From TrEMBL, chain A:
Keywords: Iron. The keyword Isomerase does not apply. The lineage of its organism: Bacteria, Pseudomonadati, Bacteroidota, Flavobacteriia, Flavobacteriales. The keyword Iron applies. SUPFAM superfamilies: C-terminal domain of transcriptional repressors (SSF50037). Pfam families: FeoA. This is Ferrous iron transport protein A. It comes from Kordia aestuariivivens.
From TrEMBL, chain B:
Belongs to the TRAFAC class TrmE-Era-EngA-EngB-Septin-like GTPase superfamily. FeoB GTPase (TC 9.A.8) family. It is found in: Cell inner membrane; Cell membrane. The keyword Iron applies. The keyword Endoplasmic reticulum does not apply. This is Ferrous iron transport protein B. It comes from Kordia aestuariivivens. Probable transporter of a GTP-driven Fe(2+) uptake system. Residues 5-172 form the FeoB-type G domain. It is a multi-pass membrane protein. The chain crosses the membrane at residues 247-265, 303-327, 347-369, 381-408, 420-441, 483-502, 659-685, 697-717. Keywords: Cell membrane, GTP-binding, Ion transport, Iron, Iron transport, Membrane, Nucleotide-binding, Transmembrane, Transmembrane helix, Transport.
Length: 75, 718
């Protein structure tokens, strides 16, 4: 399965699912919900955080969080 | 608080302009405090609604929801769920950003569930046109069961409509926007539910709840919120391509930091000189005007000098916080947090530690208070523990005089000289030891705390003057009051210790010195200090003549000097008496008592006194040395040179070797770089960590590092 961590810069995807116990509630509240669109805007050196647009908001999350969010790429 | 006052609570997501609205409503009638027992900022203010009516406004911390997952959110829920709470509002104002309306409405639907009169404020109306947004307000009001006011905190439109709505709060709807039966297990209206469930069960319910709320919001917005994507400009994305670039992003941040520090030093030197002079003259004036005695001395040497020691740092601190506020308001700081997170994480810190660490270059007190938004307790604690290693303003005067003493001022290349390079190295050493100790703490501290990192990257915007000004004011106030009371108290204690004699020498100091001088004449050092005074007087005479465009002959100068010399001799004797008194005071005894401990570092008991006094605030070092070396405090530029000359000629009593050599100087510089010599910081750390454990670890740990560094430096270099 693909996750947000597999996205390339500029790629869009639809959020499918994520493990509820490890994903911060704050991310869910900000609109990280199944069915919503996510786009990768920017990455950082040394596998640092990812800069995403989720549900119209710009959000930075660490890679370990991003790699738990399953997606379906929009081509 | 009178009963007629309307109680208003402002609530909303971060970056919605909630604080701007608060500033517009309350102006300068605001204060920042703490909720009892926890470290969440409590901002309250008074708003004048009409000639007769006022409202008290509570600015709740910016949160994304009312789900109690952080201290900020818990406070909001506690207040809004308990009608007997003294902050329980008559009405809640939810502030939203027109561009982020969907996400911002989540918390609105939660507030509505509490059935409090609620007003919805949609901010940033000035952006609607450029972003191609249109809203059918009556339709949205009907769907959400609320009254809506559209404002622009930037253009200050709609503020009066908000005030009017506050006056008529009784007419606001208290009906929920989402029908109660849709959310069967509502954690907002039923806080007991939260405690009865396991963490995962609770999260499942909150997850489901969030989905239902978003479904409702999407339905409502579909009818009334239109956005023409064609019109939306992509300037924001272009800015992010530059500012968060993998390489340029770091380059830009580095250059920006250098520029900021350069500018702070340039700008603050003028007001600092002025403050220094003003307090010096005030102390002199006090001594001359008031009748001689204990109280006058306490006032002039204890209290006024102590106050001067606080006020002198205001320019540097205010300027640094000006820049930090601008960077935060503009949205840039969040990008820095994003860029720095991975690097900081290696050391057990968070990207959010960057702001406290930069602030630490001004003063550790507001810096430690700025750690509050770091979610992980472990990362926050480590940030708190290492921030005092960053070179703060109070270290600079100490560095300046020691560097001038032991480092040659030769130019190396271009505009660099060894002294400047040494200062820069000291900054880097402070930063390096902060990171190193963070790394060690990260590896050794056994604290389980979930480290998560979700940071909103707000839109870039031009900072609002009012918001920046209020932030600077608030941070500077934190320094003045938090540090001020302790610096003042310790200044007074030190003064007392220095004024209490422990033996007869203290009592008879004037007699001893006068007799010795009349019998043996001036010794070498006294002669130097006399000739220094004369030289300075001569220089001032020449300068005066030049300024008045008069010629002055050597003869004139000589006769003027001859006339003044007895007074100068008198002053030298006075200084000498003060020095002898200090040596035999309680403070001098303490200095001598610790001498064996600091001898391996190359210090004598006089430096010992200065080290002890530095616990009030580091810069007290210089003033103390001035007294010990009997320079007297005349409060002008020449004073520093005199102290320098004195320090240079100072020798160990036993061996006759110089006290201030390269080795002991470097040892002292490192000691000051690492030691925890700030009681005010310890007090703040105690408050932020809820106990004495961590500040004590900080005190002993940092001072141990300082001692070892000083010891190694001296033993290797001597």
């Amino acid at each position: 399965m693909l996750t947000i961590a597999d996205l390339q810069k500029g790629e869009k995807a639809i959020i499918l699912d994520f493990p509820l116990d490890t994903i911060p509630l704050k991310l869910i509240e900000m609109g990280c919900l199944p069915g919503n669109e996510v786009m990768l805007i920017q990455t950082t050196l040394f596998n640092g955080p990812l800069f995403l647009t989720i549900n119209g908001s710009n959000i930075a999350v660490r890679k370990d969080t991003a790699s738990q969010i399953l997606i379906d790429k929009i081509v | 608080m009178s009963d007629s006052m309307i109680k208003v609570a402002l609530i909303g997501n971060p970056n919605t302009g909630k604080t701007s609205l608060f500033n517009h409503l309350t102006g300068l009638n605001q204060k920042v405090g703490n909720y009892p027992g926890i470290t969440v900022d409590k901002k309250t203010g008074i708003c004048k609604l009409s000639k007769t009516q006022k409202a008290s406004i509570l600015d709740l911390p910016g949160t994304y929801s009312l789900n109690a997952s952080s201290a900020d959110e818990k406070i909001a829920i506690e207040i809004l769920n308990d009608s007997s709470n003294k902050f329980y509002p008559d009405l809640a104002i939810v502030v939203t950003d027109v561009e982020q309306l969907k996400r911002n409405l989540l918390i609105f639907t939660q507030i509505k569930d509490l059935e409090i009169p609620t007003l919805l404020v949609i901010n940033m109306a000035d952006r609607m046109q450029s972003k191609g947004i249109s809203i059918d307000i009556p339709q949205l009001e009907a769907d959400l069961n609320t009254k809506i006011v559209v404002i622009s905190s930037k253009l200050q439109t709609g503020i009066n409509d908000v005030k009017e709505a506050i006056i008529n709060y009784a007419s606001l709807s208290t009906k929920r926007s989402i029908a109660a039966e849709k959310i069967t297990q509502n954690t907002i209206t039923n806080p007991e539910l939260v405690n009865s469930l396991s963490k995962l069960e609770l999260k499942k319910i909150q997850h489901r709840e969030t989905i239902i709320r978003y479904q409702f919001i999407n339905e409502a917005l579909k009818k009334s919120y239109k956005i023409d994507r064609e019109k939306a400009s992509d300037l924001q994305a272009k800015l992010d391509r530059v500012f968060t670039h993998k390489i340029f992003g770091y380059v830009i941040f580095g250059v920006l930091l250098l520029l900021i520090f350069q500018v702070i030093f340039e700008w603050s030197s003028v007001p600092m000189d002025f403050i220094d002079g003003a307090f010096g003259s005030l102390a002199d004036w006090t001594k001359e005007t008031l009748p001689e005695g204990m109280f006058t001395n306490l006032l002039a040497e204890g209290i006024i000098a102590g106050l001067g020691g606080i006020v002198i740092f205001i320019p540097q601190i205010a300027f640094l916080f000006l820049f930090i506020a601008i960077l935060e308001e503009s949205g840039y700081m969040s990008r820095v947090v994003f860029l720095m997170d991975k690097i900081m994480r290696r050391f057990g810190l968070s990207g959010k530690s960057v702001v406290p660490l930069i602030s630490g270059a001004a003063c550790a007190i507001p810096a430690i208070m700025a750690t509050r938004n770091i979610e992980s307790w472990k990362e926050r604690l480590i940030t708190i523990l290492v921030t005092p290693f960053i070179t703060c303003s109070a270290r600079l005067p100490v560095y300046a005089i020691l560097i001038a003493l032991i480092i040659p001022s030769e130019r190396v290349f271009w505009f660099f000289n060894w002294q400047g390079i040494t200062l820069m190295l000291l900054y880097l050493v402070g930063f390096a030891i902060a990171l190193l100790s963070a790394y060690i703490l990260h590896k050794t501290l056994k604290i389980e705390s979930k480290s998560y990192f979700v940071v909103e990257m707000p839109k870039y915007k031009v900072p609002l003057f009012k918001n920046v000004a209020f932030t600077v004011l608030e941070k500077t106030k934190a320094f003045v009051f938090e540090a001020g009371k302790i610096i003042l108290a310790i200044s007074i204690i030190l003064w007392v210790l220095a004024s209490v004699g422990v033996n007869d020498t203290f009592k008879n100091a004037d007699q001893i010195i006068t007799e010795s001088v009349s019998k043996n004449g001036f010794n070498e050092i006294q002669e130097i200090s006399l000739s220094n005074k004369i030289a300075r007087y001569e220089k001032s005479l020449v300068e005066e003549a030049v300024e008045a465009k008069k010629t002055i002959t050597a003869l004139d100068i000589n006769s003027a000097i001859a006339e003044k010399t007895p007074a100068f001799r008198e002053a030298v004797i006075e200084d000498e008496i003060a020095a002898l008194r200090l040596e035999n005071s309680a403070l001098g005894t303490i200095g001598k008592a610790i001498e064996p401990a600091i001898k391996p570092l190359g210090y004598d008991w006089k430096i010992g006194i200065a080290l002890v006094s530095s616990f009030a605030a580091r810069e007290v070092f210089i003033g103390t040395l001035a007294t010990i070396y009997s320079v007297g405090s005349e409060g002008d530029d020449e004073e520093a040179n005199t102290i320098k000359a004195k320090m240079q000629s100072e020798v160990h009593a036993a061996s006759g070797k110089k006290v201030f050599t390269f080795a002991s100087g470097i040892s002292l510089l490192l000691f000051y770089a690492f030691a925890m010599q700030c009681m005010s910081t310890l007090a703040i750390v105690k408050r932020e960590t809820n106990g004495w454990k961590w500040p004590m670890i900080q005190l002993f740990g940092m001072t141990a590092i300082a001692y070892i560094a000083g010891l190694i430096a001296y033993q290797f270099l001597k």
